[in-house]
Amino acid sequence: MMPTALKRLTSALLLALWSLAASGEETLHLHAESGTGQTPLVIGAALDLHQARPLLEDFHRRHPHLDITYRNLTTLELHQRFLDAPDAADVVLSSAMPWQYRLANDGHAQPLDSDIAHAWPAWARWRHELFAFTFEPIVMVVHRDFTERFGELESHGDLLERLADHPRALAGRVVTYDPQRSGAGYTYAIEESRLSPRYWDLVAVLGQARTALAETTGEMLEGLASGRYLVGYNLLGSYVRDAVADHPELTIVVPEDYALVVQRLAFIPRQAPHPEAARLFLDYLLGETGQRTIAERTQLGAVHPDLEGPGTAAALREKLGDALRPIALGPGLLATLDDLKREALLTRWQREFDREGPAFR
Amino acid sequence: MKHGDSLYRRLLTWLLLPALILAGLMVVQAWLEARRTADRAFDRLLEAASLAIAEQVQWQDDRLWLDLPPAALEMLATDAEERVFYSLVDREGRFITGNAELPGDSRSSRESGDTLFFRNLEWQGLALRQGVRRSQLEDWRQSEPYEVRVAHSREGRDALARELLRGNLAYILVMAALTVTVLLLAIRAALAPLTRLRRAIRARDPRTLAPLELPLPRELAELRETLNDLLARMRRVRANQERFIGDASHQLRTPLAGLSAHAELALRHDDPQRWRDALVAMQATSARTARLAMQLLSLTRLDNPEYAPEFDELDLAAVARQAVRDHWAHCHRDGIDLGVEDPGSPATIRGVTWQLDEALGNLIDNARRYGARRITVRARAQPPALEVEDDGPGIPESRHLLVLRPFHRGQDDGEGSGLGLAIVDGIARTHGARLRLGEGTGGRGLIVSLTFPREDP
């Protein structure tokens, strides 16, 4: 029986583990053109500046009267700051889907009642309050050495097979998120466990192969680049694309049997100080212009149904079809945040991971 | 005619008003029913979700344990994308897990035996429907009660209720339209005979007084009969008038023919003495004719129902004395004894002096004409009355009513016009007095009395 205070503490701890972005606050300030009536717009986000900058600059060019402050925080800081001061930000963007969903579910978001919002596909929004504006698959990163020694890796099934076949050769050469320490890793684990019961077999063979467990994407990418790891499992596609471009020996594999898709969620807080400016920004973000910028100048993946070509959800779907599994934007996300659920899942995960497989005996 | 006085409108208002109130009540009832139905349907979701959660509650590591099935939460959200809340509390009401510390339900399951309660809940500014399931873990050693509380916002329910209401509303509207149409037609049909009656009256020849003949419903048939009665009365009045005009012209024609004959006769002679005789005769005839015309005029005036003279206070004794004074010389010349009897106390009534003078004049004149030698004019105080008594031949009782008719004469002597008593009768009616004819004292002669109503103090 856990007192509420303790529950809050663990919730915060769990959030602390969700560390996709680099820690520390990054701020971008785009000043309004002098002479025009200035309207401030404060965006609180968990989205790296180098991904957000093209979007913000394009938006500012179209609306120069806005005085934009963009704060990039870790998902934890963003969430905590929002709860501390729900009237500080005009727009909140984050990839921590369960937390964003929970805020909206609790009534912290205000509906966006524009034509663009109404045209937004139903699977990528919730109640006109919460909008998914990116499409980022969870991928595997494979080192050239792996392909040379064990052949092409194209799916979860392939990985399971290779790991089962070569547990000694691959021992310690695979890396993935530690679901105990990383919020993202935990979210992927719970979603994958819902997708397929074979996930637990995969966890078991990962355990048998003494898979390395990392806390951040950076840690995994560094190990992969240095050749310490041959396979990185469950990395967020949008973050690794740039790193892979610098390292030709690494390739990104979007698994063809199933690929989880994470989406960044945006909402306008109910107590937003400048809701008009916030609506402008969201309309831009969900409109064809903003989405085209996302497709062409970022790695985030555009959702807009009218856009096609590289960098869009449509292109990914064409390639992978039904294998893409966007994390459903629904009350199921609330289960992810349940403390007992987390405890139960992690216990099971650890048990499967620690299971001594027959391959070793 | 004012619009508000239309029968059609009145009927329409009093029939439509209750119908509309009824329709309003039906709409309210339909809304309540739609809400109830929607709640019943959606409460099954709360029931299923709370059951799905309750099934996963276990006893583990000396505490309540829940492996929350995400599907249970998905179940609570329909297409309307409801907000979803859940919590698990232990026997002491302590919060074990959940995304919201939902309040419990105060209803006790001990009395009803229910383990599932639904209610509407206003929680942190959100309108929610909550389901609370009470259950317990049956273990070998102990039983552990717990409560699963689930809630979701009302959008789905409201949408379903609206949809159900829309269906009902369409039905109610069709019924209302039908009712209004039927009412309009019914009222129109019910009022149609009235229109027929109006047309029938309008289409009549304005000169005809024939009764109306057309089939009508009972209420209007009564109106038609009343109308026919009126017409019958008018027919009688017109017959009287026609007869009066005929008589009057006959009466006027005779003296005029006399005048013409006298003049013609005189013109044949050259003798001035003859001319003079003719002129004397003509003067007498024209005086009589003038008097006849005067009498006709006053009779016509008295018979006019529109005629309302102005009444003054007057003393009957004074009227009687004046009459005797006016006629005494005339009678004295003929050797008739004209006298007056005074009551000694004033007999005051409201009346028109010149009319009473005329009445007494006519009565004295009549008595004189029919050979009375002694005429007495009498005024009485209790009750106020005027009497004229003579010792002439009198009128037998069988002819009392007949002599009151215009142009009826007691005997043909060529002198009287036959209008005297008719005029007296008219004056009596104008004053509301009773005219009575009776035998004189000693069984001879005639007493004509006018008894006036006692004046109200």
From TrEMBL, chain A:
Pfam families registered for this protein in UniProt: SBP_bac_11
Domain of life: Bacteria
A GO CC term attached to the entry: outer membrane-bounded periplasmic space
Signal peptide: 1-24
Keyword annotations of the record: Signal
Zinc-finger as UniProt keyword: no
Name assigned to this protein: Iron(III) transport system substrate-binding protein
Organism encoding this protein: Billgrantia gudaonensis
TrEMBL record, chain B:
EC number: 2.7.13.3
Boundaries of every Histidine kinase domain copy: 247-456
PROSITE patterns according to UniProt: HAMP, HIS_KIN
TM region positions: 12-32, 169-191
Cellular localisation: Membrane
GO cellular component labels: plasma membrane
Catalytic activity: ATP + protein L-histidine = ADP + protein N-phospho-L-histidine
GO MF entry, a single one: phosphorelay sensor kinase activity
Key words of the record: Kinase, Membrane, Phosphoprotein, Transferase, Transmembrane, Transmembrane helix, Two-component regulatory system
Residue span, HAMP domain: 188-239
Keyword Transmembrane helix: yes
Gene3D superfamilies in the record: 1.10.287.130, Histidine kinase-like ATPase, C-terminal domain
UniProt-recorded name of the protein: histidine kinase
